[in-house]
Amino acid sequence: MSFSAEYIGEFWDPLLAHAGLNRWLKKEREEAYSDWLAWSFEQLSALDILHVLGIAEPEIVASVRSHAFKIEREFYIPDGRLDLLLTLESFLTVIIEVK
Q1: Would you call 50 helix, strand, or coil by DSSP?
Q2: Distance CA 56, CA 83 (A)
Q3: Distance between CA atoms of 23 and 36, rounded to whole angstroms?
Q4: Which of 10, 74, 91, 99 has the greatest number of CB atoms lying within 10 Å of its CB?
Q5: Residue 67 contacts residue 46 (beta carbons within 8 Å)
């Protein structure tokens, strides 16, 4: 199966959506958008998430086929908290800060 830039499986790429037009998020803070983005990622396979995020390193892509991302919201670190923390076993960590 080939992927286009806008379409992944049964889901449109959530990063291309204009979330400001959605009435749920229009007047909300970044926490609401982060919740929506986390939920969107939870609907996708690890391979699809890599595609959405533009991660195409062959060794990473080959490693994710039988794994799933662990997706955490408001992950606390000593200096504050991270909006989204995506981890794939012990070989990949993705931090997303929503602004």
Answers
A1: helix
A2: 23
A3: 13
A4: 74
A5: yes
CA separation, residue 91 to residues 17, 29, 86, 94 (Å): 29, 32, 11, 10
| Consecutive H or E run containing 72 | strand 70-77
pLDDT in tens, 38-97: 988 998 888 888 888 888 888 888 888 778 899 998 888 898 888 899 998 778 888 888
Q: Nearest Cα to 89, choosing from 69, 61, 65?
A: 69
Instruction: Report the greatest alpha carbon distance in the chain.
Output: 42
Residue with the larger pLDDT of the pair 82 and 7: 82
Tokens describing residue 99:
């602004």
> CA-to-CA distance for 8 and 6, rounded, in angstroms?
7
Cα gap 96→83, rounded to integer Å: 6
